Amino acid sequence: MRWLTLILGVAILAGVASVVIVLRDGSTGSGTASAGQTAPSTPLIGSPAHSEFTDPCGTFETAATTPYAVSGYWLIPASDPCTWRRQLEAIHRLGGDTVVRLGFGLSPRETDDTGQILEASTPEGKDPKPDARYARCVENGLSCMKAAEKDLQAANPGNRITGTYVYRTDERFGPGIFRCPQMEHEVVVGDAVFFRLLAPEDGSDDPTCDFAREGRGYHLILVSAGVKDSLSELLDLGDRFGIKVFPALPLAPRDPEESTRADPRHIGTLTTLTRRVLQDYGDRFKGRESLGGVYQPFELQLRDWPDPSKVQTLQVYAEQHLIVEQELPDKPILVSPYIDSRRRVKYTSTPTQVAQGFKALARTGVEIIAPQDGRGTGKVGLFWPNWKNKPVDDSLKPVVGESTYATAYYGSTRDYYRAMSLARQELVQEGVQVELWANVEAFEPSTSTEACGRQGTRGRTDKPRLDTQVTLAAPYVSKIISYMWSDFFTCGSPSLSEEIAADWDRPIPIEAQRRARQIQDGLEIRGYHVGGANVTLSWPGLDTPRVVDSATVGWHDTTPIQGLPAGTEKIWIPVDWATVPDGVWIRVEVTSVDGRKSAEPVYYHNTG
């Protein structure tokens, strides 16, 4: 009896420990000021009402105590659910309200005579081998491909499989992924889970499911899935932490002749898989606040295409995005194209050309465009107009060599985001609604700093450089996100995320504008954590910099600024413009009350 009492006691304690009580304090928006979020200077941004919750991975805090200017991050799919929890807790602590998860690609494959799916690539001179992952898919002694073909031909002897595709994921879909359950089903072999999908080769995804009327060609899509559904786990965490999740759409197959282009020959099968996945999301996640939208993972370089309708990747985008509009009409599509500003490389683009490419991309149905800022790859530089004749930063030399900014690049990060911001305004006037975010790259072009896990030859950057990226991009975007959390924010000691947490409220000015207030003329400085700061003004020819205490003679306004990222605020200081020479670039430095200077100044060109 004592043993029974002891067992019951342990069970009761375990039950109590596993209870999770989570109350959400509203839903988070896109991260823009217009969404009505609290500015980062106030702790507990978008936090659930309770300060902590418990689960099998331990107890986790849900309070955002050190909110930073970057509010979204990319994540690599993780096999350990506790890794998701640790990552989202840390992201939320830095004020993050958005995560974008990388996904997987649809891949056409050859099969052998027994229906075994062959490996995607084979060394030259070697015979292709069966892919071990899909070799486990067996039904009634037949490979899944042969079993599907047998079932099709039982319905009509003229039916045949004319193409085989594979798709690997860590998600486990529900019955919503099946259109024709008499031919499509889940296959479980030990700890391996597969989904067998069949679609007419013409891409119609015929809803009649009439396999008997006439013999047709079909494509088999064999999905290697997870034992548990990782997206459900991620959305549960999103609900708890007040974080929006953007899962990736199936990645289009690449053109074998040019891997940077999507292959339009597979549009029918790609859109079929996309429709099925999104139908399943609609069934299982209807009304989930944490499903923020979907991410288009096929990367594209922004440029001014002579005829966008002939660009293969844009063709694939348009068809795939139409499916999203049909199946998840209330969820936006996020895409993150890249920019190449290097003068000495072919097929790069000026800011004006990128702005035209931005318009063409928006017309494919995307609602959020978050261009990569290019500093991590070295394809774009961080510099001001009055710096163009300075030598490039040392870490950029492996990419552009010994050169000045003007000889290396067509423009700076700021030039490109300004041009795209103007293009966005023109699109809105045309009735095309699209948001412009910035994707600031949290890495350096080489590992001269510090290598990070799975990130190959690129190393992590530091907080001052990340602050600088925010400074250059923020005036023209409504939200700032970063590629990527794992491993650039988590490697090293201290890690980049730890550096941010220790210095989260250092001032980050983003813009200075001449502006009058009441009867006085002066300068308005916008940025993060600028309240009460000392502002230092200097320009060429000025012997002694001018220091102004904004807390004493200035004005501070924390009202959210329409169209700018959440947390931006402004201060104003008086300036006697009669004493400032015309045409000079005024260097504006901001220093916090405790003496911390911003990593990057802003410049104002006094044109009178």
Overview of the structural elements:
The protein contains 15 helices and 30 strands. The chain has 608 residues and is α/β, with parallel strands linked by helices. The protein has a five-stranded parallel sheet. A five-stranded mixed sheet has the order 5-8-11-10-9. It is elongated.
Features:
single chain, 608 residues, alpha/beta, 5-stranded parallel sheet, 5-stranded mixed sheet, 15 helices, 22% strand, DUF4434 domain-containing protein, DUF4434
Strand order, largest beta sheet: 12-4-3-22-19
Structural class: alpha/beta
What's the β-strand tally? 30
Integer average pLDDT: 90
Quickly describe the structure.
The protein is an alpha/beta fold. Helix 8 links the parallel strand 16 (333-335) and strand 17 (368-369).
Helices and strands, with pairings:
Elements: H1 2-18, E1 52-55, E2 58-61, E3 72-75, H2 81-93, E4 98-101, E5 106-109, H3 132-135, E6 138-139, E7 142-143, H4 144-155, E8 160-168, E9 185-189, E10 192-200, E11 217-225, H5 230-241, E12 244-246, E13 254-255, E14 258-262, H6 267-284, E15 294-296, H7 312-327, E16 333-335, H8 351-362, E17 368-369, H9 397-400, H10 405-408, H11 413-430, E18 435-436, E19 438-441, E20 443-444, E21 459-460, H12 463-473, E22 480-483, H13 485-489, H14 496-502, E23 508-517, E24 520-528, E25 534-538, E26 546-549, H15 550-553, E27 555-557, E28 569-574, E29 585-591, E30 602-605
Parallel strand pairs: 3-4, 3-22, 4-12, 8-11, 15-16, 16-17, 17-18, 19-22
Antiparallel strand pairs: 1-2, 5-8, 6-7, 9-10, 10-11, 13-14, 20-21, 23-24, 24-28, 25-26, 25-29, 27-28, 29-30
Helix pairs in contact: 2-5, 6-7, 8-11
InterPro entries: DUF4434
Protein name: DUF4434 domain-containing protein
